[in-house]
Design brief:
This protein is an alpha+beta fold. Helix 2 runs antiparallel to helix 3. The protein is globular, with a radius of gyration of 14 Å. It starts with 5 loop residues before the first strand and ends with a helix.
């Protein structure tokens, strides 16, 4: 979230659905790295933004057949870091800022992955939308 309550979205092609999706920034936790540090690193690498603060939203298992866990944070007061994106060679990410209503609509209409994050952040997003 930016200070003016825009959601930072990583728009990128996803091979599973074979289309461009409007995702939240994210990625893997490196060995020895804490989930919050991974979130801050991925936010900076994928979007060129840094968070003023963050709030832990929770952890989910994607399905009953894997033991991997996904940790979700709400990054607040995000501003450009001055260094820009630092993408891997195979990554192509368009950074867009959208309002909360559009972000929620994208989740409900299947235009994004990681809709668990939307569920975990829903009350906070509604509060921010009302500000």
């Amino acid at each position: 979230m930016t200070p003016d309550n825009k959601v930072i979205v990583a728009r990128q092609f996803r091979p599973g659905p074979e289309r461009v999706m409007e995702d939240i920034p994210g990625g893997l936790v490196e060995p020895g790295e804490e989930p919050q540090a991974a979130m801050l690193r991925e936010l900076a690498e994928e979007t060129g933004y840094k968070a003023g603060s963050s709030k832990y939203l929770g952890m989910v298992y994607k399905d009953a057949y894997h033991n991997a866990s996904w940790h979700y944070y709400l990054a607040l007061d995000c501003e450009e870091n001055g260094a820009g994106q630092q993408l891997d060679d195979a990554e192509k990410v368009e950074v867009v800022r959208i309002d909360i209503a559009t972000f929620l609509k994208n989740a409900f209409e299947g235009r994004m992955t990681d809709v668990e994050a939307v569920l975990l952040a829903y009350e906070e997003l509604q509060r921010l939308a009302d500000d």
